[in-house]
Amino acid sequence: MATRKYQAQKYESNSIEKAVDALTVEEALQININNKPFTVSMRTPGDDISLVRGMLHSEGIIKNAHFIPDLILKKENEDGIVTIVDLQIPKKELGEGYSNSRTLLSVSSCGICGRTELGDLSFLGKTIDEYKKIDIAILNGLFEKMNDQQHSFHQSGGTHAAAAFTLEGNLLSAMEDIGRHNAVDKVIGKLILSKTLKEASVLTVSGRVSYEIVIKCFKAGIPFLAAVSAPSSLAVDYAKELGITLFAFCRDERATCYSLPERTKFNNQKTNLDIKAS
Question: Exactly one of 110, 113, 217, 250 is catalytic; which is it?
């Protein structure tokens, strides 16, 4: 199951309609080695055995490329998605990557990846209560302002960007980095250092949105999150749970809202609220 359907509200320059979008599934996979939790990887379910074996090779966990460990698909969730796998690997087959597993965990690019157990995924915190509404008409302008600050991208084409704005669209901070998550961290850090975090109401990001960016937005207390590209299924699930109004596919004067659309204002006349499959 590589995709999951979500209801959404789509905005264009002169219309609004409801739709059903298929989003890529993002789920956690806990990997146990010799009956002990080793790491957690976020992935799209499917070909899990290949994913695990490839990771063990590329990270130097198993030193012999010809060795195929016993792998047991230990647990599935209610959707039939595997959530835990057990590997039995003799000590003689374990490489330096296993003994240096802290290195593997610390370089992981996402917040859940690198956690040792799925039990660590529990997240405590109050959801964001936001009674103000965002004007859909300003979204396109926010991305134009962020694009104007992407100096490294215009030179190399190799960086992502994130930016924070007031609800009126005033730019507070814009940052670039080779990693999407790093760009978001830089923006939030700048807001904290400049003591403007409480003024931030909208976070924009280039590229797609994973669950981790939603969590970063939540921890910063920013109620609106907008992205150029697609969200993952887990990003939408977390946005709904944590009180984040999530927009994606924000380009060419279009946007799709996947959570809390009641926080939006849209003043154009043409409206079609029938559910449509996209």
Answer: 110
